[in-house]
Amino acid sequence: MADQTGYPDHADGGRRPQRAVPDYDLPDALTLEEPQQYRALFEDTRQAIITLLSERAATVSELAQVLDRPKGTVGHHVQVLASAGLVHVVRTEKVRALEAKYWGRTARVFYYQTLEAGTAQRLLERSAAEVGRVEASGQGEKIVMDVNRRDVRVPAERAREFRDRLADLLLEFADEPRAGDTTYAMVFGIFPSSLDVLPERAGEGS
């Protein structure tokens, strides 16, 4: 599995110029191996920081402003990510008498094998809350939005195939050039359903 991120963009003649993301060099991928890295990455504020740094390098002050969180709190989260090897200082700039540190990711994509218990549930709950806010705002018909679900009884191997195809689509979505005024989220999930199975009809399966 992979934490989706931004890849280099390509201009395509849209209304707004599209810029390469992020605006610093970094390796394509990093495989998470240490528990510390999992704990660092899969926390809401740190996930938001990692996502923002997919766009460009940023200072703690810039991140705090976008996240509407105290600078000290955001600085703490950045240090946790740095200690786990997920972000680092990619450049510095002199601002009057101070030196501003610009933080960036250590890889475009973070690959991982397993999730701690409850991580997937928290991701879906957070996504559901965002969908609920859009619905409550009455803006759902004015923007691109769709949520749907199907429950289908299939062999595990076919479920794995669909999971892999969905993961590829998510990475393709992350690879899109940055443009427009709205950030969209794509969420996919495949999991055992609680829907009961119809019993076989008389005479079948014998």
Automatic annotation (TrEMBL):
One Pfam family named in its UniProt record: HTH_20
Region (Disordered): 1-22
High-level lineage: Bacteria, Bacillati, Actinomycetota, Actinomycetes, Micrococcales
CDD domains for the chain: HTH_ARSR
Identification of the protein by name: Winged helix-turn-helix transcriptional regulator
Domain HTH arsR-type: 26-122
Organism the protein comes from: Ornithinimicrobium ciconiae
Molecular function GO labels: DNA-binding transcription factor activity
Domain of life: Bacteria
